[in-house]
Specification:
321 residues, alpha+beta, 2 domains, 23% strand
């Protein structure tokens, strides 16, 4: 099934893909004619069945038209502002779709949305790559670094962090406030099953253009960021230990923190095995005492929040509020 697609940009939306079948478009010929007229590089082909196809661009937007329907995709802020540093407001996004309707000369409110990119640019204190090592794994995602960007990816979604200034194209105009700044870009890309992600049977342009939906998209973006494990900065030191026991306790607490409490408890269970012998009660008592002591040591204050992570968490929470 071919549907019309659009990509939305930063702040709430960055890129979007919309699609629609011809059955609900009254004048197919007129749409073809208008696309060919406004496109900077419209090219006509034929598919394997001999049916005509049309592909091209309207500014930064791409489009594909065939016997089944139409697809439109691209960045909303790049279309409106010629760059995607500027955050489009909900009114800007409505204006974008109104322009698409003027180009096609048809109503797009029932066009289905099959991809959404929800993005934000954050000015940070340090080069963006310095934050990556403190952002750990995320459940249901594969974590990897590619071309200087940090990816969390599965078959349906991506969460990508990268240096926006470095990724900027040379001709792309840079707003004044981003000059001489470190700009971290955070993009949540819903590549497939947008409707399911928003708990709907279908998801159309008219569903998107409500304040409730904009807030849901903001919440999704923030929730995905919060799912990422954040590392802590080790603050281990023997300073302040006044006795051999305190020295050993600090070393033991650090080891427990590094190895993980569950792993240490498992090792205790495998060491103190209750085997039904005459010493079983002693073994069990020593095992329980060991676990209790390990639990106490695991609560020692040996770590503090990483300054980079604290900064990033604070600024992420300020993005839409």
């Amino acid at each position: 099934m071919h549907l019309q697609t659009i990509f939305v940009s930063p702040g709430v939306l960055d890129s979007i893909l919309i699609s629609h079948q011809w059955e609900s478009i009254s004048d197919k010929v007129n749409v073809w004619r208008r696309l060919r007229a406004v496109s900077i590089n419209a090219t006509r082909h034929r598919d394997h069945l001999g049916n005509p196809k049309l592909e091209g661009n309207i500014k930064n937007l791409g489009f594909k038209v065939d016997s089944r329907g139409i697809i439109i995709f691209g960045s909303i802020p790049k279309f409106l502002f010629n760059q995607n540093f500027t955050v489009p407001t909900p009114e800007d996004i409505r204006r974008f779709f109104h322009k698409i309707e003027e180009i096609l000369d048809c109503d797009v409110s029932d066009f289905n949305i099959y991809r959404l990119d929800i993005s934000a640019n954050i000015i940070v204190n340090s080069p963006p790559q310095q934050y990556f090592e403190y952002l750990g794994d995320c459940r249901y995602y594969k974590r990897f670094i590619q071309d200087g960007s940090l990816y969390y990816q599965n078959t349906q979604r991506q969460f990508v962090l990268y240096d926006k200034i470095r990724a900027r194209r040379r001709h792309e105009k840079l707003p004044e406030k981003f000059r001489d700044a470190h700009v971290l870009r955070l993009e949540y890309r819903i590549i497939k099953r947008v409707a399911k992600r928003l708990k709907k049977k279908s998801f159309t342009v008219k569903d998107l253009l409500t304040e409730d939906t904009f807030q849901k998209l903001r919440d999704l973006w923030l929730a995905e960021y919060c799912r990422i494990d954040k590392s802590a900065e080790k603050r281990f030191s023997l300073k302040g230990a006044r006795t051999p026991k305190e020295t050993i306790d600090r070393l033991a607490a650090y080891a427990i923190n590094e190895l993980g409490l569950s792993w240490v408890r498992k090792q205790i269970d495998e060491t103190f095995i209750v085997d039904g012998s005459k010493h079983s009660r002693t073994i069990q008592r020593n095992r329980d005492r060991s676990k209790k002591r390990v639990r106490e040591l695991s609560k020692m204050d040996l770590i503090s929040p990483n300054s980079l992570v604290s900064e990033l968490n604070y600024k992420v929470n300020q993005v839409f509020f």
